[in-house]
Amino acid sequence: MADTEKKSLADRLGLKVHSGVGNAGWGRTLFAGVISFVYFFPVLWIILTAFKTHNDALAIPPKFIFTPTLENFVSVFSRAYSAGAVAQDTGFALYFFNSVFIAGTSVFLALAIGTLAAFGFSRYPLRGNDTYLFIILTTRMLPAIVVIIPIFLMFRVAGLSGTYIGVILLYTAFNLPFTVWMMKSFFDELSPDVEDAARIDGSSDRRVFFKICLPQVKAGLAATAVFGLILTWNEFLFALLLTGVDTRTVPVAMAQTIGGDIGVRWGLLAAIETLFLIPVIVVTFILQNHLLRGVTFGTVKR
Amino acid sequence: MMKVWVVYPLRVAFASVPAALIVSALAITFLPPSVSFWVSGAVSAFSAFLFVAYAWGRHAGGLLVAPAIALLFCMNIFPLLWSFGLSFFHYRANRLAPPRFAGLHYYEKVLSDPVVWDRLQVTAKMVVLTVSLQMVIGFLLAMLFAKQFPLRRVLLILVLTPMMLSFVAVGAFFRYYYEPTFGLVSQAVRVFTGEPYVLLQSAAGATAGIVFADAWMWSPFVMLLVLAGLVSVPKYLYEAASIDRISHWRRFWSITFPYVRSLLMLALLFRTIEAFKLFDVVFLLTEGGPGTSTETIAVYVYRVSFQYFKTSESAALAYILLFTVIVLTNLYLYFANKRNRT
Question: What's the structural domain count of chain A?
Answer without folding.
Answer: 2
